[in-house]
């Protein structure tokens, strides 16, 4: 008998039919002899509806009250899911975040979990009940409702699995697992059976939408093995776990493409200490996240500084840079929104040389110009023209033979 | 400086506009130097929507899960109301039932309040904040969310006023107060300025829809003076409080008409002890509430038993009675759904004789036949033909000069 924590996201509990599907799936795991704890999100669309109503009343709603408001979404789903289980003869009980012992800090709308007691979950499981827990929400030490921010329900599930020392954590979602590339971009992309936390983190931060990095980090820190799989079929998904030696046999595990990038170039910047810091401090203060950065010395000893930001931030970023540098005459700020970032990720890079050379060779053969490069221990990213993005991703996927099982 | 508890029902917080109206009204009371605690219901229609969704999933949803589900409705409203107050510069904070210290028994969907601590409401008021409390909900001693059943938000407000020792409790609703009669039936009906708990209770149980009897009973028991008034204008409403001697100057305070009655007659019942008990025990077991009862002896020593029930219960009631009496041959069960109950209510009846005589005289002059009579210390009710109901109500209202201020 295994203790399994299952998480179902908003699309999986969107309406009555889908909630009934979730109930049947949960029951099938119970019938196989498992104890099951279910973490659910708000029904798809409900959170946005609540946010819209709030903004209509107050364009800048207090974060504490936003948490009070948004916590309703999951509360509705846990009650309906319990009723759906009862309807098919499966004893079940719902639990709000605070009832399941989610203790958080006081940062409303983006609270961090500081403890999970689990409440009476183990007792209820021992009685043969399924326990359905509201994801995304907790309570701070002052008794106020808090929410965990984006991807909060995944985090709830992983954290609960850690707190309960569950045997397995399953993240049911609308994709079948983690792929070697986005199948909409690379049609012969393949589902990965096993992947390390590090690779999953690199893919998450490279724009792969499967899971937020914080949930993966939490799982890694607490050694929670989890599976990402589809809530619409019975196929096994992708197991995410600590790196094992055999994983290094695969040099590159996946290709990620982020088409939502913009590039800013500041030219003829005086090449003296502190000017780059000036630019990035101003961007940090304006809450603009900078991704890749390249600096080189141009004509006459002046420096050129190039960096990428999310496309949505481009105008705010350019304005911030221009203001920060208004006392430097002759400095020019140019930008383009037509940039993509292509990354190859794999723990095998640690032990295999030549991955960068292979990547650059593939891109050159397909006439894709590399504008910027950045690397981590298990990742190489290049900034390229948006027009070349799809062609490049397909070529790199093929070039590293990612369509073939290792 | 007064401490006021204000309650706004579902129609008063139905949409964004109305929530903003409520916020402006609340702020005006604060600006006059009062401390204000606001109790709100779910937005109009939300509770029914949730119930419908639940029944679609499970025709017999567990009451515990219904409470979990329905409590969402008020949670949404408190957050939105707090945001609306913030938007007009009024500090405010929302509180769920359990955060406001509503402790109830374990009867899900119809819990009774066993204690109200108020939580930190007094501290927050002292900081200049408005505290917005979710009506209708509490928590039992096992930490489970409970709801108070029909009229629960009124009860929350009255109970909170008692717990906080508030100076005044205001029930804002979609009527302007308590009237001498339903203005849709009696056009010259007049708003009553002051009424006693007893009269309010008699009117509530006579089908006047202003408030559920349990809230009035709670107010009476704990000496909470409350005002029923409109949330759509600034007119004073009706103050409900303990009887004072001057109230007895008014012999009749109001006329109530209940058109939702049906009459059942059981004839030729053996006139021996226990047969009436048999009938009413069976009806009680079938959850049919019996209102007026008349028994008399008919032909040949057999008894006739006549009683009224709510029109919705008529078929269930007749079936139950027929089954209970199936071993008594010759008994006949007849019924009619075309009955109305007209009541006159007033604490003045205690000290004024002749009210019944006046009532019967008025009805006789208007050719209205009286089918049954029942009385309490401060009420006389008669069952009449439904066809005569409106005419009779107008005649009685005029006959007791209720259109004129006492």
UniProtKB/TrEMBL annotation, chains A, B:
It is an enzyme of class 2 (transferase). Pathway: Amino-acid biosynthesis; L-methionine biosynthesis via de novo pathway; L-homoserine from L-aspartate: step 1/3; Amino-acid biosynthesis; L-threonine biosynthesis; L-threonine from L-aspartate: step 1/5; Amino-acid biosynthesis; L-lysine biosynthesis via DAP pathway; (S)-tetrahydrodipicolinate from L-aspartate: step 1/4. ATP binds at residues 7-10, 173-174, 179, 184, 209-210. Residues 264-338, 344-406 form the ACT domain. It comes from the Bacteria. GO terms for biological process: homoserine biosynthetic process; lysine biosynthetic process via diaminopimelate; threonine biosynthetic process. GO terms for molecular function: aspartate kinase activity; ATP binding. InterPro entries: AceGlu_kinase-like_sf, ACT-like_dom_sf, ACT_Aspartokinase, ACT_dom, AKii-LysC-BS, Asp/Glu/Uridylate_kinase, Asp_kin_monofn, Asp_kinase. Its EC number is 2.7.2.4. Belongs to the aspartokinase family. NCBIfam families: asp_kin_monofn, asp_kinases, PRK06635.1-2, PRK06635.1-4. This is Aspartokinase. It comes from Cerasicoccus arenae.
């Amino acid at each position: 008998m295994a203790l399994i924590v299952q998480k179902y996201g908003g699309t999986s509990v969107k309406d009555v039919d889908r909630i009934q599907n979730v109930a049947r799936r949960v029951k099938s795991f119970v019938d196989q002899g498992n104890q099951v704890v279910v973490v659910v999100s708000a029904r798809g669309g409900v959170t946005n509806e609540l946010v819209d109503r709030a903004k209509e009343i107050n364009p800048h709603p207090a974060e504490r009250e936003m948490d009070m408001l948004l916590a309703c979404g999951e509360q509705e789903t846990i009650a309906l899911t319990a009723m759906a289980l009862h309807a098919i003869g499966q004893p079940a009980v719902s639990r709000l975040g605070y009832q399941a012992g989610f203790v958080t800090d006081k940062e409303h709308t983006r609270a961090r979990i500081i403890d999970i007691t689990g409440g009476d979950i183990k007792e209820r499981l021992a009685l043969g009940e399924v326990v359905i827990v509201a994801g995304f929400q907790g309570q701070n030490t002052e008794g106020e409702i808090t929410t965990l921010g984006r991807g909060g329900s995944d985090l709830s599930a992983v954290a609960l699995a850690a707190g309960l020392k569950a045997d397995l954590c399953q993240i049911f979602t609308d994709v079948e697992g983690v792929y070697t590339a986005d199948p909409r971009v690379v049609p012969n992309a393949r589902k990965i059976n096993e992947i390390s936390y590090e690779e999953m983190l690199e893919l998450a931060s490279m724009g792969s939408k499967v899971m937020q990095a914080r949930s993966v980090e939490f799982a890694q820190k607490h050694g929670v093995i989890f599976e990402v799989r589809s809530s619409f079929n019975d196929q096994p998904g992708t197991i995410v776990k600590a790196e094992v030696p055999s994983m290094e046999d695969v040099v590159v595990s996946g290709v990620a493409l982020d088409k939502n990038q913009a590039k800013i170039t500041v030219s003829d910047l005086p090449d003296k200490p502190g000017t780059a810091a000036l630019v990035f401090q101003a961007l940090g203060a304006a809450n603009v996240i900078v991704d890749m950065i390249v600096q080189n010395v141009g004509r006459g000893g002046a420096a050129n500084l190039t960096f990428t930001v999310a496309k949505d931030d481009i105008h705010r970023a350019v304005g911030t840079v221009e203001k920060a540098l208004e006392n430097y005459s002759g400095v020019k700020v140019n930008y383009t929104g037509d940039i993509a970032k292509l990354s190859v990720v794999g723990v095998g890079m640690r032990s295999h040389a030549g991955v960068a050379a292979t990547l650059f060779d593939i891109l050159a053969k397909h006439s894709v110009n590399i504008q910027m490069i950045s690397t981590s221990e298990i990742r190489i990213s290049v900034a390229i023209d948006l027009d070349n993005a799809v062609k490049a991703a397909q070529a790199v996927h093929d070039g590293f033979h990612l369509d073939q099982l290792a």
